[in-house]
Each structure stands twice: as C-alpha cells, then as structure tokens.
Amino acid sequence: MANGERVDPLRGYNFRVEIGPITNMGFRECAGLTFKTDPVEYREGSDRQLHVRKLYGLRTFDTIKLTRGIIGDRRLWEWYLQILNGAAPRRDGAVILTDEAQQPQWRWRFYEGFISQWEGPSFNATANEVAVEKIEICVERVEVV
Fold it and tell me: CB 3.0–4.6 Å: which of 3, 40, 48, 83 could bond 88 by disulfide?
C-alpha cells in the first residue's frame, strides 16, 4: 500500500501455552484448535419446500496437541500420572498468539482440560534430533477471549 498502512499477518511461531498453574513452559508445536458444530436436519410434513432445514447441533472441540523438547521439568508428566491414578484435577488454560514484541494478540481459552495421551521420545543413536514429548489435552470447550 502506498499510504504506509500495511498490516502483516501474525507469525505462527510466536505463541505461549498456559495450563492451570503452568504459565512459563515453552512448546515447539501446538495444534488442534479445531471446532465443529454438527448440523441437525429437520423437516415437517407440511413444509412446502422439498428440502430439509439445517439447525444448529452440538459443538465439539478437538484435542489440543502439544510438542516440546524434554527437559528436567516433569510437571506435565506428574499431572498425567495423577490422571492415570484417577485423582487429577481438570485444568483450564490458554493458547496465546503474540506479535513480534511478544504482546498477546489472540487468546484461545480452554476449559476442563485433562491429558488424554502422553507420548515419550523416540530414540535413535544415529539421528541428530532433540528428544521430544507429545501430549494431547482433551477439552470440553474453547472460547476466543
């Protein structure tokens, strides 16, 4: 634009994740911010139109998938261990997209989350890779705030 009002999109590599009391943990990758509303088809016998109406149905939210390099911090594993033992609290959290100055621009807040899957690293003595852990957090609801 000639008038100098160019607005560039935000970068996908500037993000933070908060999970309950965990607010300072970095992740390499975050995926799964996918939401769906199922349609409900309905038609009455007296409708003149020969097609069904579409009504709003139930909303569903995908699991949030997180990947990070393994470090000495075991807070996610300890939370998952509580889940395995049947005594873990559900946690609220957020995925925050930031600008280049690390200022929050978008926040996807999730509610009633718990780890539904934990995956440890793959080991290969001939590879040159970082050991990573992957988790999936099942959530009941997500809102943009």
Answer: 83
Q: How many residues does the chain have?
A: 145
pLDDT tens column, 44-75: 989 888 899 999 999 999 999 999 999 988 99
**What separation in angstroms does the CA of 121 have from each of 26, 46, 71, 78?**
17, 60, 12, 17
Which position has the token pair 């995926």?
A: 31
What predicted TM-score, i.e. pTM, was given to this entire model? 0.87
DSSP for 97-109 reads EE-TT--EEEEEE
The Cα 63–Cα 135 span in angstroms is 10
Are residues 131 and 70 in contact, defined by beta-carbon separation less than 8 angstroms?
Answer: yes
Rounded Cα–Cα distance for residues 125 and 145 (Å): 45
CATH number for the region 15-43+51-144 comes to: 2.30.110.20
Cβ-based burial of 72 (10 A; exposed 0-12, middle 13-18, buried ≥19): exposed
Domain ranges of the chain: 15-43+51-144
